[in-house]
Design a protein that fits this description.
The structure is a single chain. The protein is about 30% helix and about 25% strand. It has helices at about 10-20, 55-60, 70-85, 100-110, 120-125, 145-155, 165-175, 215-225, 245-265, 290-310, 325, 360-365, 455-460, and strands at about 40, 50, 55, 65-70, 90-95, 115, 135, 155-160, 180-185, 210, 230-235, 270-275, 315-320, 330-340, 345-350, 370, 380-385, 395-405, 410-415, 435-440, 445-450. Strands 4, 14, 15, 16, 17, 18, 19, 20 and 21 form a nine-stranded mixed β-sheet that branches. Strand 20 (about 435-440) and strand 21 form a beta hairpin.
Length: about 475
């Protein structure tokens, strides 16, 4: 099916002579399974379906913009991580990627643990029935109220992020008559090959206690002396959207070296090591992420090898995938509004959402792809930039991609791999209403986070 083409920007032949962009895909109607969730298909009629439901029907029922989350895919990824690491390791889903009560229940049912990094995330976890012993509490500046609630309900671990927090958690635990299991987060000096704002293990940033200068060793000394704390291990997180395992190898070597220092000085072998998360996903066809079993094998071998060399028992390993589970399971559905060709440059395609539902492109220079999903098209490719409706020049959803030249207002386009950090970082900029999250499974769709309304906005405005 095709429509009359509007006046457009450069076609693919012009683009290629500029030398700035890769060639358009051979088939604009194809959906790369590496990027899209597992039940997304394009049927013979040209329409895209997820969980057996046509996206046009989803748009009619739930409106756009909206996030559609493939529940079967989410659950399958949970099981893949759980099975890859097995019963002798712990998998904590990183709730910051995306959290709702439905997601908490899925995690519980699939046997994953959960890490939270705020009182709100903890409240969501508890309200959905996640056993507190399977919750880890992160954060570089936890409030006393947050710590008190975490200790009171019995979270399985609090990850200590500063010298002040070591004392703060211990005092609160002692006052409540408890001994709180904790880990110490260390920064190991590894520069992850990622964006500056999501690299978290070099010294010049806000997270953790540095190995350099003996600070982490001093943190261990202080924690071991306090009656309110049970030090169970060391935590390390080197960044996000990482594909190269070399950084994890260096981090593990340095953390194991610290474990050996602790043994030699205190006669204690700490039983756990948490290597964090940050494993990358495919946002475009150029990305090549590892599978969970490959990651589990590599991390296990790294830790075992380093512990053997140091004469240590291999500790229990924990990991914290968030994006790697939820990221590929969702796409954002938009309706095309205006189409603006810029001769010799590209065509600007404006949609009914933007940076309020996906800030990652503006914040991290993130790459995405996009597809026409309400129909197929045999029109030639045109280079597009998908932009939002907000009053910012940087309101870009997809910087450069190819869509059919007969794209028209009213068409539905979808951006895949938006399950992580899109809804959780969404805003009300320009008083936009944050989109709903709709779970789709086996031909049924249900809202798990509803669309905001104008009443929601005005309810908070007490002026």
């Amino acid at each position: 099916m095709s429509r009359s083409a509007h006046p457009a920007g450069p076609r693919h032949a012009d683009v290629l002579t500029e030398g700035h962009y890769s060639a358009p895909p051979a088939d604009l109607n194809a959906l790369d399974p590496k990027v899209w969730s597992r039940t997304v298909t394009r049927e013979g009629d040209g329409a895209v379906r997820v969980g057996g439901i046509e996206v046009a029907g989803l748009a009619e029922e739930f409106g756009t913009p909206a996030y559609f989350l493939d529940e079967d895919d989410f659950r399958a990824r949970c099981r893949a991580w759980r099975d890859a690491f097995g019963p002798d390791a712990d998998v904590f889903y990183a709730g910051k990627a995306f959290l709702s009560r439905a997601v908490v229940r899925w995690l519980d049912e699939e046997g994953l643990n959960l890490d939270v990094c705020s009182g709100g995330e903890l409240a969501t976890a508890l309200s959905a029935g996640m056993p507190p012993a399977r919750i880890a509490f992160h954060g570089n500046n936890k409030s006393e109220e947050e710590i008190e609630r975490a200790v009171e309900v019995g979270v399985g671990r609090i990850v200590l992020d500063s010298f002040q927090e070591i004392v703060r958690v211990s005092h609160i635990a002692e006052r409540l008559g408890k001994r709180q299991p904790v880990q110490i987060r260390v920064t190991v000096g590894v520069e992850a090959h990622t964006h500056e704002f999501i690299a978290t293990a070099h010294e010049d940033q806000k997270f953790g206690i540095a190995l350099a200068g003996g600070q982490a060793a001093e943190a261990v000394r202080r924690a071991l002396k306090l009656d309110g704390l049970e030090l169970i291990g060391i935590h390390s997180h080197i960044g996000s959207q990482i594909f190269d395992m070399a950084g994890f190898e260096v981090a593990a070597r340095r953390v194991v070296s610290l474990l050996a220092e602790v043994r030699d000085e205190h006669g204690v072998e700490l039983p756990e090591i948490d290597l964090g998360g940050g494993l990358g996903i495919a946002y475009t066809s150029d990305d090549d992420p590892s599978e969970p079993h490959e990651i589990a094998k590599a991390l296990g071998e790294i830790v075992t090898r380093e512990c053997d060399a140091a004469g240590l028992r291999t500790p229990r390993i924990s990991v914290e995938p968030g994006r790697a589970i939820v990221g590929p399971t969702a796409f954002t559905l938009y309706t095309v509004g205006t189409i603006k060709p810029l001769e010799t440059l590209r065509t600007y395609v404006s949609v009914d959402g933007g940076m309020s539902d996906n800030i990652r492109t503006a914040l991290y220079d993130a790459e995405y792809t996009v597809a026409l999903v309400s129909r197929s098209s045999d029109a030639e490719p045109m280079l597009v930039r998908v932009v939002g409706k907000h009053c910012e020049s940087g309101d870009i959803v997809v910087k450069d991609a190819f869509l059919p030249a007969d794209l028209a207002p009213g068409d539905l386009i979808a951006v895949p791999a938006t399950g992580a950090y899109c809804r959780s970082m969404a805003s009300n900029y320009n008083h936009a209403l944050r989109p709903p999250v709709v779970a789709v499974r086996d031909g049924e769709a249900r809202v798990i986070v509803r669309r905001e309304t104008e009443e929601d906005l005005l309810r908070l405005d007490v002026g």
